[in-house]
């Protein structure tokens, strides 16, 4: 994948689910915020609630969504096509993104859609930022700690769209930082992240 980072189409995504088991649990909310280069397109944000086959009441403490609110929500099959279109051609951005991507990929596969997106986890990106700038990490790399470091306002959490927007803003600042240090293309960014992953002697591991 080549091209200027300022022209790449990114998509910050976040899900709410009934649990963390991709084989048994279900998606109940999808939030997504498009980004082109360093520009967040908040006006084109995407948010859908989904009706699960089985609701886990214990998961409410994390997402706050109750069965009554989800009773009239979409079934994933009803929005699969628009979700597949939303993801097409995008580099996905997220916090602990592999979990969300796994849920989406599995759900789309059941509806006959195959997705293969490049992904950037803001945790891995933060390690790369610290590496190239010689900065100390924020400590435990929670979404809240990253938001605090980059002065991103956090007024509402554990809502898929709110968390996707927080993540988009963190990613935006991270991107601006590495652009100043000569990382100009998406290939260079992925190479940097991989290089940091390989460097097990780096102080943040």
Automatic annotation (TrEMBL):
Record-linked Pfam families: RNase_T
Keywords per UniProt: Exonuclease, Hydrolase, Nuclease, Nucleotidyltransferase, Transferase
EC numbers for this chain: 2.7.7.7
GO molecular function, one term: DNA binding
SUPFAM superfamilies, A to Z: Ribonuclease H-like (SSF53098)
Exonuclease domain sequence ranges: 9-180
GO cellular component: cytosol
Name of this protein: Exonuclease, DNA polymerase III, epsilon subunit family
Lineage: Archaea, Methanobacteriati, Methanobacteriota, Archaeoglobi, Archaeoglobales
